[in-house]
Design a protein that fits this description.
This protein is of the alpha+beta class and 365 residues long. It has helices at 3-45, 112-138, 151-161, 163-178, and strands spanning 52-57, 60-75, 78-81, 89-92, 99-100, 105-109, 181-183, 188-191, 208-211, 215-223, 235-240, 248-259, 264-272, 282-298, 302-305, 308-315, 319-324, 326-330, 334-339, 346-350, 362-363. Helix 2 (112-138) crosses helix 3 (151-161).
């Protein structure tokens, strides 16, 4: 090839070589920028943080075991009141939710017919008494001293005179008249009162219920395996689901000595409702029982590593040491330690989520 042809080729290919050189320079610059941005991103994502932790000295203390269950409130004192006669209701002096005292009048029937029947029954009884005396006199016994009459003779005389029947009718009339007024059998609160005055009383239905709001009981169940952990007298804490901020305390009063087909045992606790627990209310029950002095750690001190319980302790005052442990019992905020730690260890209780063995730590108050 001669020089003239070579010069022509170079003139034609020069723009192509210039473009390739420009692309190469642009790619190199872009790579430098990406590498710089990547390094900056790593610095942002992985800052040089300090492991700040808080610690406690492990020592023995009284551990209160807590057993949690669901329960239902029931009134220890509850009376369903009803009228014995189907007369018109004349007066109702209370309404649902009213507090009543023992012996207080609640409602009353129209007593005209009842008093009239009582008066008639009383007259009939007096007549039968006279007839009884006549029968005894006719048999030679003194009218003013019936104590000398033999028992069998007295029975026959009462049947002949109709005395027993008249007395029975009189007692029934007197009973109906006295029970025409409903009286509160004890101090409590009125509930389930739906009848209205001037309507006939329904003797087959409950007129109202009086509930003793002070003496409340809570029925709940525990597992068969949890029976050794409770006993009569253990403290219970009651929290209504409708008002979790309200807390009531009581004690276990009964443990039913029977395990049902589901492996559950019924337990009853007596609690002072202070007028704020209603019968039928659903509550959360916590049974507390002191199990003596044990090594106790807060739940925040325990982390899981590969499904195992781990607690970090402070080593040489500046490093975290990894310890496998086994816990025995627990309550709402603590564990009792079965093994893995000794009394006097400095346990890391916060800031331990991402710790590693022998990681440097900084203690904070």
């Amino acid at each position: 090839i001669n020089r003239e042809k070579f010069n022509n080729i170079m003139k034609n290919q020069y723009p192509f070589y210039t473009l390739c050189l420009a692309l190469a320079m642009l790619t190199a610059c872009s790579g430098e920028k990406k590498e710089s941005a990547s390094e900056k991103g790593v610095e942002t994502v992985l800052p040089d943080t300090k492991n700040e932790v808080s610690v406690m000295t492990l020592k023995k203390q009284v551990f209160n075991h807590e057993l949690v269950s669901n329960g239902k409130v029931s009134a220890k004192g509850m009376a369903d009141l009803r009228f014995e006669s189907g007369e018109v209701i004349a007066h109702i002096w209370v309404k649902n939710g009213d507090r009543v005292q023992k012996g207080q009048k609640l409602a009353e029937l129209d007593k005209f017919k009842l008093d009239n029947l009582l008066s008639q029954a009383e007259d009939a009884l007096k007549k039968s008494e006279l007839e009884l005396r006549d029968v005894l006199i006719s048999q030679g016994y003194p009218a003013d001293d019936i104590s000398q009459v033999p028992e069998e003779t007295m029975k026959l005389a009462k049947v002949k005179s109709g005395y027993d029947q008249s007395k029975s009718q009189y007692e029934m009339a007197k009973y109906n008249a006295e029970h025409a007024t409903l009286i509160a059998p004890f101090a409590g609160v009125v509930a389930n009162l739906f009848s209205k005055p001037y309507n006939l009383a329904n003797t087959s239905e409950i007129f109202c219920t009086v509930i003793d709001m002070q003496g409340m009981e809570v029925d709940f169940t525990v597992l068969e395996s949890e029976l050794p952990l409770i006993k009569n007298g253990d403290k219970v804490v009651i929290k209504p689901y409708s008002d979790a901020a309200t807390v009531h305390e009581g004690n276990i009063s009964e443990i039913n000595p029977l395990v049902d087909d589901k492996g559950m045992v019924k337990v009853k606790a007596r609690v002072n409702g202070a007028g704020r627990l209603f019968s039928g209310m659903n509550v959360r029950v916590s049974v507390h029982r002191s199990l003596g002095e044990q090594l106790v750690i807060p739940k925040s001190a325990v982390v899981l590593r590969s499904g195992k319980q781990v607690v970090f302790t402070l080593k040489d005052g500046k490093m975290a040491q990894w310890n496998y442990i086994h816990t025995a019992l627990e309550n709402a905020d603590s564990y009792s330690v079965a093994d893995g730690l000794t009394e006097g260890d400095t346990v890391i209780v916060t800031g331990n989520i991402n710790l590693a063995h022998e990681a440097p730590v900084t203690i904070i108050e």
